[in-house]
Amino acid sequence: MSENLERRRFLKCLGASSLILAPLGCSSVKEESDANKPHYVMVFDQNKCTGCGECKDACNLANNLPAGKSRLLMEQQSGGVVGEVCPHCGKTECDCERKYVRVSCQQCKNAPCVTVCPTGAAHRDEKTGIVTMDAAKCAGCKYCIGACPYDARFINKETDVADNCDFCLHSKLAIGELPACVQQCRYDALIFGDANDPDSYVSKLLRVKDSVRMKPGFGTEPSLRYIPIVKLGV
Amino acid sequence: MDGSIEFTMGLSDGIAWPWPIAVYLFFAGISGGALATALFVRFYKNQTENTPFYKAAALISLVTISLGMLCLVLDLTNPLFFWRILVYYNFNSVMSIGVIALSFYIPLVAIIALLALEEEVRQYPQLKMLLPVIEKLKNFRRPMEISVLVLALSVCAYTGFLISALVRFPIINTSVLPALFIASGMSGGAASAKMLAVSMFKEDLHSPDMKLLHGAEWPIMFSEALFIFMIAMSLFTGNEGMQSAFAAFHTGTWSWVFWLGVIGIGFAGPLLLNFATSHKFSHSAKAFYASGLCAVSGMMCLRMFILYAGQQYGI
């Protein structure tokens, strides 16, 4: 008898809870699908970059940065300048080809700076998905600078707030132009566009070229891609 | 192909968090540790009166957390931006959660200190207007003490979680850091509160409270040493970045801070003063203060080592 009652109660509860839980499961808040949103990416082609540094000047100008400061750096990794030692082989005279790497915000899809920022000043722009700054909210705690796995953030000495490369979101993209560095580059070493648009030049490029991301082990999923110089042949 | 391209430059100038943050971690650790120890003793022994140790711990806790906040604010690029942290919140951010904890903790510590120092307040006629407030607050003393105990331990742990979120640095990005900071906060906090209890509130050097604390000191210190050993071992046996960070323990200025400051002063100091000296000396006031100062300096050295050596060895 009591066993029967227990079973009945168990079945009742099961039915009731499934009735309650089922609609919850159906109506659960879904992650907003990324399909309709743009995913802006930049590709740096190391084979084409000559290290002229004009991208840095263009960045400084476009984003009203303090004199001599830009949101990107060029790291020379090989090839001697006359009178100086080659950073790759250490000799003053060598046959190393000049090689440069763009150092700037990697525009992570999973951005540690956005996670750690206590005020939400470092945030992802809703429309474009680009990681950018709200200078009016930044308290200058430098948490984002320490948390960035790429050391790609800095304090703007004029405004006292943190800064990062946001593909010129507020300066150039806002008026429908390409980022200043991309416009400036005379060697087509920088390509910018929406990777979610299958017809964009950048999507087509990424389909045919091998590109890599920096420090993928951090799980940050950067949107900046690099086409490295590779040795030809086997 | 991943890994075929790398860069070593960075856009920030030097280390993001310099010494004021280490001092802040130190003060927050002392504050939380001292109060947590005092409350543990109070609950364990069912004390209802304001013992000298309790008074000292409450006072130290309030002073150190205030100084810590000062360090924190002065380290902002512009201290006038401080209000922004209090107004805007991001619940994914460890710092933001810490700010919420601190904004409950600090007022509660102030109340606890006020209640603990009731007799002292009574001695000053100028502070008479505080007495009715104390009477009112007394009714909520127990729940406040319990919540402040939880918050004190949270604040200690928070200082660890805060920096362990910096993924680039293998020494800092370890899971035992919050536990290490709780243990070291308790030993440093208890040591400083003990010294103040004896010097300012005339506690007897060999009172039962002091004896209890002396007994608790060694297990806490042992767990601290264990946590440090765990960090060192995980780096030693870890991946490439961790192995290169292990160098912090044997090369450079910060290895000196570690071996002389953390191990020499922080661990060997109190141990030698208590066990390697004559019974008469090890029970003297001199040894008591020297050993307390050793514990506190060792704690400061640990924070400096973790923060500076940590940020020096990035991946």
From TrEMBL, chain A:
Where does the record place the 4Fe-4S ferredoxin-type domain? 40-70, 97-127, 129-158
Keywords assigned? 4Fe-4S, Iron, Iron-sulfur, Metal-binding
Gene3D superfamilies per UniProt = 3.30.70.20
One function term, GO molecular function aspect: metal ion binding
Tell me, what's a Pfam family for it? Fer4_11
Q: Which domain of life is it from?
A: Bacteria
Q: What InterPro entries has UniProt attached to this entry?
A: 4Fe4S_Fe-S-bd, 4Fe4S_Fe_S_CS, ET_IronSulfur_Cluster-Binding, TAT_signal
Matches recorded under PANTHER family: PROTEIN NRFC, PROTEIN NRFC HOMOLOG
Put simply, this protein is called 4Fe-4S dicluster domain-containing protein
Automatic annotation (TrEMBL), chain B:
Q: Which InterPro entries match?
A: Electron_transfer_protein, NrfD-like
Query: What subcellular locations does the record give?
Result: Cell membrane
Regions that span the bilayer? 21-44, 56-77, 97-117, 146-171, 177-197, 218-236, 256-275, 287-309
Q: Which family does it belong to?
A: Belongs to the NrfD family.
Q: Which domain of life is it from?
A: Bacteria
UniProt keyword Transmembrane helix present: yes
The molecule here is called Nitrite reductase
- Protein species of origin: Shewanella hanedai (Alteromonas hanedai)
